[in-house]
Amino acid sequence: MKSNQPRPRPLKANALAESVRYVLRLYVAGQTPRSIRSIANIKRICEEYLRGRYVLDVIDLYQQPELAHDHQIVAVPTLIRKLPPPVRRIIGDLSNTARVLARLDLRDMDERRLPEGPSGRV
Amino acid sequence: MTRRKAHAPALPVRTQLTKAPTGIKGLDEITLGGLPSGRTTLICGSAGCGKTLLAMEFIVRGATQFNEPGVFVAFEESATELTENVASLGFDLKRLIARHQVVVDAVRIDRTDIEETGEYDLEGLFIRLGQAIDSIGAKRVVLDTIESLFAGLPNLVILRAELHRLFHWLKDKGVTAIVTGERGDGRLTLQGLEEYVSDCVIALDQEATNQGSSRLLRIIKYRGSLHGTNVYPFLIDDDGISVLPITSLGLQHPASTERISSGVARLDTMLGGKGYYRGSSVLVTGIAGTGKSSLAATFVDATCRRGERALYFSFEESADQLIRNTRSIGIDLGSWVAKGLLLVQSARPTLTSLELHLMTMRKAIDSFKPQGVVIDPLNSFVGDHNEAEVKALLLRLVDFLKTRQITAFMTSLTAGGHSSEHTEVDISSLIDTWLLLRALEASGERNRAMYIMKSRGMNHSNQISEFVLSDHGVELRDVYVGSSGVLAGSARMAQEAQEQAAQLTREQDIELRQLGLERKRKALEMQIASLRGEFEAQETETLRLIGQAQTQTARLAQGRVDMGVSRKVDATANKARRGLK
């Protein structure tokens, strides 16, 4: 675990945060309504908060089953934040936007919209 | 529904339900053939009671013995940890993985690392499992322990539904599966896995006793099959798990017809004239101080004299003490130790668990490769341990020794109050030759007696013999059996003296009579001699008189002739007259 977090918390929207690149991977299994929903959710969030500074790979485990083992996937959909470190995992169809944002450390930027802080861990 | 008992795992059993043999010693016997094939078995138990090892042995034996590749999904350990852990059981997981006989998939779920943000399912796990099964054509699957999912993933409702789906999916895949579960309060597993698994449930338990602990196995449920219902003790040693139903002894070991000396000539004679069978198990029981260890030392001495190796497990005396004490009966075990033919291992078995003991004993036997093994005494095992477990351990040990054609000599101390036929550990069924040492208390002293309780396969003596320890070893002497019972020791000596005195008297009597007869003969002969002398004297006298008379007669006749001549008488007339006279 790296100790030098790229930025201190809590963080207001600033130039440093704006410059951080996000590498995200979404693992789904087939074209189920849930898969489609999760893909739509993450795309929406990325476009809204990370426009221009994210890479999102959507991996269908039915197409590449060996990746389930290689990347330790149990539940689907699973979203993995590869970058910035540390690696974070989010499971579910990503419909709880507040939690997704908190987990991706995008919470602060979202504060202006939410009536109260998300329930994510501090 | 009736079902034949399985004799060997290799033998397919005619059942409606096909079974997948586990290859685990004893388990296939009590399940009458193995786990239900193509179905899921739940193995539950508290932490550390051997669930993972049992499941792993199922996979490893499946791959190595039954040509059924297996997938082991570990939720609690990494593949490396698992490989290391089972290496202690002699399972080379790495090799099996390299040969595509086993796949180990370690599933890591870290609750702190996971955030739930909506609906999900466990399709990822299904894909992994499916991938692993298909990659090697697996027939067996272990999920150890699936309950970790509950700790790692939120949302019980989803998990329960997914688990249900998983068990159905496993059934559809046609794999024989084991899922393990931790024991919960008042139920078999924390998450009630038993509700999902309906075919076969096996519970493992660990029972803490005073100092050690015993492992127990019980089949709670086995749908569509008969099964043993007892609680069976089991052991984990470097050969894997062994469940020990008493009837599961292999009984396939070779039986040697070679006979070996017991070290006591008289005892050999009593044992059909030749001694013990090689590879048999000999038990000596008796109360304290009846000479069990001495007989054991004699056996060791005889073994080493043949140039064979002997391993002496001494649980009450140290090696030095044993050597010193046996020197007092003229047996020098020290020289055999020096020659490398004898190894004495001393330990107090109560200090370690039985499993560990069995393991260390087996290791010692494997490395020293003895032809004879002494366990002195068996009772030390009992200590605080469960008697059934001790019996199980001995069964394993005797079986192990028999398959290696090692003659086992065991001693067992009988408690004073008990009948002499009662062994502390009831193992007489395991024993081929059972010698019983008894103390005979009579006329103010205590003596030893020995008899052969049983000896399989030989025409043994049923004589009670006195067992004498002297400074030149163990000797057996005849005892006297009279109206006052068996006589031994000084009573025997008194009897012997008495008999000797009687014998002497008889001999003297005979001698006297012979002397008398001789004297009579001599008297008679003397009488005969004197009579003969008398007769001879008379004869001589008579002959002399006859001679005199004849001479006189002749002289008279001559005189008459002379006179006749002088008178000129006809000689013929004289002659004729004399002839008429």
Based on the model shown, name its key terms.
heterodimer, A: 122 residues, alpha+beta, 4-stranded mixed sheet, 4 strands, B: 581 residues, 23% strand, disordered N terminus
What is the number of strand segments of chain B? Answer: 25
H/E topology pattern of chain A: HEHEHEEHH
Relative strand content of chain A: 15-25%
The total of beta strands of chain A comes to: 4
List low-confidence stretches of chain A: 7-15, 110-122
Q: Give the CA-CA distance, first to last residue of chain B.
A: 141 Å
Mean pLDDT of chain B: 82
- Ranges of chain B where pLDDT stays below 50 over 5 or more residues in a row are 1-15
Note the topology.
The complex is a heterodimer of chains A (122) and B (581).
Chain A: H1 15-19, E1 22-28, H2 33-49, E2 54-60, H3 66-70, E3 78-83, E4 88-91, H4 97-103, H5 107-110
Parallel strand pairs in A: 1-2
Antiparallel strand pairs in A: 1-3, 3-4
Chain B: E1 19-20, H1 27-30, E2 35-36, E3 40-45, H2 51-65, E4 70-74, H3 79-87, H4 93-98, E5 102-106, E6 114-116, H5 123-136, E7 140-144, H6 148-152, H7 156-173, E8 176-182, E9 200-208, E10 213-222, E11 231-237, E12 240-243, E13 259-260, H8 265-270, E14 276-277, E15 281-286, H9 292-305, E16 310-314, H10 319-327, H11 333-338, E17 342-346, H12 354-368, E18 372-376, H13 379-382, H14 387-403, E19 407-413, E20 433-442, E21 445-455, E22 465-470, E23 473-478, E24 480-482, E25 485-487, H15 489-567, H16 571-580
Parallel strand pairs in B: 3-8, 3-9, 4-5, 4-7, 7-8, 15-19, 15-20, 16-17, 16-18, 18-19
Antiparallel strand pairs in B: 1-2, 9-10, 10-11, 11-12, 13-14, 20-21, 21-22, 22-23, 24-25
Helix pairs in contact in B: 12-14
Quick summary of this structure?
The complex is a heterodimer of chains A (122) and B (581). By secondary structure, chain A is α+β, with helices and mostly antiparallel strands. Chain A is 31% helix and 20% strand.
